[in-house]
Design a protein that fits this description.
The chain has ten helices and eleven strands. By secondary structure, the chain is α/β, with parallel strands linked by helices.
């Protein structure tokens, strides 16, 4: 709340001399009666009228304060924003080959990637985001959408053992995975188009090389951020054997050179994640680099808000006058 005539608020300072006068001269203005001895009235209870007597000056002070507030013209402000959001179209291209079951990231590479990707999606409510998955072949798990609840649901349905169970051909077709993501972005009208490609291996499947896919992405103005996930040497891998699971160490073979070249060709960046914390930090850095643009125009309208104060002042004044001529009436 604001006041149009703030200078009237200085009138409240007049309450100070009034209170001093009331406390110093109140007893002199009250009628008195001389008595030879007051011992008989020493323990006499005070009547309810005497107890309520201070209510009169309190009501007068309240009326004065409310009148001053009315003179100061209190105003409320109704403001709103007219905003234009320029979102970013993003495709997540995620490797789901059997090597993503390695447990150098916890609980494994696939689950760690899904968890961090879900946090990234949740933090960008205004962007079109889609999901492409690839192993030996690639397909779109979810087209670009702002319905992030559905996207997150489809992300969680990506099983870590899809290739192992034969639901998708095993292998690592980086070129096909990137091309699939690009196909979803090529007709986008957004000024910023991005692919975040995550893999833990090197291209060994597919009819399209990763660098050819990168050139296609570049021709459509699509920026590609590549992430190589996994430790630097070997990683524990759960191998299914009769009667249970046996862990074996498998070599980590990430084609960092190709991933770096893809990023450079498309004006993106290449990152390496050897643990969960590094992977989370990479997505945070990409989130900072790819911020949505927001144009905001602010409007406001003020409304007079003195009416409640004026009504309250009138009611309290009437109450004080009514008490003065009835309950607290004094005989001359």
């Amino acid at each position: 709340m604001e006041f149009a005539n703030k200078e009237y608020l200085f009138l409240l300072l007049l309450l100070i001399p009034y209170l001093i006068w009331y406390l110093m001269y109140r007893k002199k203005s009250e009628p008195t009666m001389r008595m030879s001895d007051t011992m008989a009235y020493r323990y006499a209870p005070r009547s309810w009228k005497v107890v309520l007597m201070p209510i009169q000056p309190i009501l007068r002070i309240a009326v004065f304060v409310l009148v001053v507030l009315v003179l100061a013209r209190p105003q409320t402000q109704n403001s709103w924003k007219n905003q234009t959001m320029e979102g970013i179209d993003i495709m997540l291209a995620m490797d789901v080959s059997t090597s993503m079951l390695a447990e150098d990231l916890k609980p494994n590479r696939m689950e760690a990637a899904k968890q961090v990707a879900a946090e990234f999606i949740t933090g960008r409510p205004n962007d079109n985001i889609g999901l492409s998955i690839f192993a030996g072949e690639a397909f779109t798990q979810c087209p670009m959408t702002t319905d992030h609840a559905s996207l997150l649901n489809l992300l969680q349905n990506v099983r870590t053992d899809m290739a192992q169970r034969g639901l998708i051909e095993d292998g690592t077709a980086i070129g096909m995975g990137l091309a699939n993501a690009v196909s979803r972005l090529k007709d986008s009208k957004a000024k910023s188009k991005v692919v975040i490609l995550l893999t833990d291996g090197s291209n060994n499947r597919g009819d399209l090389s990763p660098l050819t896919a990168a050139e296609i992405a570049k021709s459509f103005g699509i920026r590609v951020y590549t992430i190589g996930v996994g430790t630097n040497k070997v990683a524990p891998y759960p191998m299914t054997v009769a009667g249970g699971v046996q862990y074996v160490n498998i070599p980590v073979e990430i084609d960092t050179k190709t991933l770096s070249e893809i990023a450079v060709a498309t004006n993106g960046d290449f990152y390496r994640a050897t643990n969960n914390k590094e992977l989370q930090q990479i997505y945070k850095e990409i989130d900072k680099l790819e911020k949505s643009k927001l144009n905001v125009k602010k409007f406001s309208k003020r409304y007079e808000a003195y009416q409640p104060f004026a009504i309250a002042a009138a009611l309290l004044l009437l109450l004080e006058m009514l008490l003065r001529i009835t309950i607290f009436r004094r005989l001359p």
